[in-house]
Amino acid sequence: MSVLRDIWDRPIASNDSFQTNAALLIGRVLAVVALAPNGLRKIATFEETAAGMGGTPQNIGGRLFPEQTPLIVFPAPEMFLAASIAFDLLGALLIIIGWRTRTTATLLTGYVIIAMVIFHSDIRGPEDVHHIIRNVSFVGALFLLSGVGGGHWSLDGLISRSQRPRA
Asked: Environment class of residue 24 by beta-carbon count within 10 Å: exposed (0-12), middle (13-18) or buried (19+)?
């Protein structure tokens, strides 16, 4: 009951409240839950996805990729795809453990916005709209993390506590 009272009584959460730290931990995990499977899918379909980034339509999971015309056709798609996989997997891991959360969330925000513009700007059907809505929500969560950080229950919080001068 005290958690509910705290939420009701305080319009701005305190940094040390259980509810704030639990929400940031759960929020970090849920904010990036789609990145790891996306990175693993890109590894499993590396050649096909790279060809798609190079402008050659490929059939991946029963859907042509790119079904839309990418805004940019990459001259070295394997290099860009490897960077994309690193953003997906490493970015998800760093956000989940809460290391350099604000920096990582800011970089991932830019990455997702760029990917949206290049690969999801040609809206032709309900699945394309779904991708845009999902990514906009994802960007919102990343913006929040870039503003507030990982919280007390993160590596950032642990490092911050260990660097405080002892009285």
From this structure: buried
Residue whose token pair is 């259980």: 18
Residues 23-59: tens digit of each pLDDT: 999 999 999 998 999 999 999 999 988 887 887 776 6
Domain limits, the chain: 21-163
User: What pTM was estimated for this model as a whole?
Assistant: 0.83
**Distance between CA atoms of residues 140 and 6, nearest Å:** 25
